[in-house]
Amino acid sequence: MVGARDLNHNRIKYFVTSQSQTDKEFLSQIASGYLINTETAYVKIQNYLDTFDFRLYKKGLTLSKESKSYHLSKLNLAQSMTQVIDRSKVSLRFWWDLPDCPLGKELKSCIDVRALLPVVDIRRHITKTRVLNKDEKTVAFLSIQNISLSDNGKKKLLINMLSLAPVRGYDREFNRIKSNIERSMLKECGGDVFGMALESIGKEPSNYSSKLNFALASQMPASRAFKNILSNLLQTMKLNEYGMKEDIDTEFLHDFRVAVRRARSLLTLIKGVFPEDVTSQLKMDFARLGKMTNLLRDLDVYLLKRQEYLNIIPEDMRLGLNYLFDEILCKKRKEAHKGFVKSLAGYSYKSALDTLDNFLKEQPIRGDKSTFNLNTPIIELAKKTIWKRYKKVIKTGRQIDDESPDPVLHKLRIECKKLRYCLEFFACLFPDKEMEQIIKQMKRLQDNLGDFNDLYVQQQSLKSFIQEFDSGKDEYDRNCAIAAGGLISILHRKQKQARSLFSNRFEQFSINENKALFKKLFSNDEVLA
Amino acid sequence: MKGGVGKTAASVNLAFLAARDEFRTIICDLDPQGASSYYFRIRASKEFSSSKFVKGGGSISKNIKGTDYAKLDLLPSKLSFRNMDLSLDSLRNSKTRLRKIFKAIKDEYDYMFLDCPPGISLLSENVFEASDAIIVPLIPTTLSALTYNKLVEFMEKKGIDLSKLYIFFSMVEKRKGLHQNIIKEMSYKGKNILETHIPYRSSIEKMGIYRMPVNEFEPGSESAQAYTALWNEIKNL
To answer: Counting CB atoms within 10 angstroms of each CB, which of A32, A218, B87, B182 has the fewest?
Structure first.
């Protein structure tokens, strides 16, 4: 279990070689002037895992399962974090399937709630050779790897690779062997075997992202920009369908919902781009899609909070809480998922996606008196809308003091969401650095408002669960109600804490410096001196 | 303290076992005779010297060599290390210098084993000051009890925390009644005496022929098992 820097290893060199070059003569030639000692060859099978959206690979990491252990490696470096695991006891799907260990911690920070899925199986036939000096001290390692892809039991050669690894303090020897290899005309390659395997099976990690990803140009007509944005959102919705159906992890549904909400917001926040009848049809469709997911998402959020809840209530109440989770919420969720899968197969889901799909294909968009922004340059609409939403946020927030009732904060939360969506839609039209700064500031405020709201909603739902119990019926229900009651009071206290932080967070967001930045980027008024 | 009591053999085997447990480990060969460097077939570069050593910093890092074993590095010794006391003495804070010297590489390793030359010197004072544990092999003879007392006296005089001093019996011959008696006697009054005894065995001498740790060439031997037991004690200190 070692993760820290290992200076020796970030200089390993990889070369493409051909099978015939694995013979001893070739190796002696490369290592001329040294002795060589070839060890017995061995086979290593690696089952590579990653999340649906390749969170590990995108961070330069690969996770593989070998006979009894899991290895998390940094790409291109022979540096890895190894965890030996009894595979009969642990099947790694989520980070929390691992016992408390460094690998678990690392995975938690990289993949969060996403599930690990098998991506590709690789078979390496490895022959290691030590390069020795006259004292018979190892001064470098050469290894030949015949790497193949195991595709449904069929072996397919991926690459034959020669690698040269240095030993600390023997740079001269390393460099000499390296130039010998280069002289023998072998081509250097990156050593990113996982990446090569992905390419060979036709997978491109960047295609599996729920992040907004489209190109806009300042002067693009609004209708075209809208189409680009909606196409991307539609693609995200479709991409997550499989994972939602198969119930792989909770992020599929979450990403789907965000895409739907974004699509709906776009049409609500900026008017006059598409014909009125189309807009209202799509808005209705998106509202329906959103509603379809509500119950399941609520239950997901609860189940994800299980550990957190267990940690904050007294120990003797945990039994009741576990009962609440196992017997009530899990069952409810199972039902909810079943219902949701049914609705995914139903007419209204299909027709909603088809309507959008067909509309996006329509060329050109027909204009009528309702499409007054059809050809407005998108930059104008973006600036106008963001500036308007910003002013609304400031105005709403200013009205809130420490005594204000909860619904006002709820209103501000919604206003912030609208502003945040607009900022994200049009971020690519403005300077990266400044947008990053603005979004970071927004996030701080939104996190506070989000906490406040979540804590409120959680209390309300717990109350409604208690109502469902027949408290006189049996001990389980009673324990459950007690646990829920205890939890409610803790959540209430936390909600109060979040509330007390609000004025400070809002103040930080509304400072003049931020205002000047918003004004500079989005306002058409002259910047005040 | 004395020569030929099994200091180097212990350093080499314990460091090897630490690295095998996946700890990032380094042996610093401070003995000008360079026995541990020899066991790992490592020679220091021509430019390395005790005056470079005491300067610390980049020159230390540059001279570290990887051994043939994963996670185990070695800082080789140089004949010029026999001038170590002179080199140290020429500096300010000459008694706490070693800690400073190792500061540059401290974070790279989980365990550092300092293999010391025999005798009590300015260098040993530095080593005692810089270490988390001072592990001293003793051959169970009447003289070694004397050596131990002298060591304690020295440490007390220099104000070094005695609780980090550990001893273990080395080159123990089971059949020698004298060995057994002295072990009994010393265990009786001594503190911090490790339970494992390293037996007197030829496999330890064979290290010089194979130029490898015992646990590499004769892993099943009594000596190898004793070092493993000793390492298990030390890592749990």
So the answer is: A32
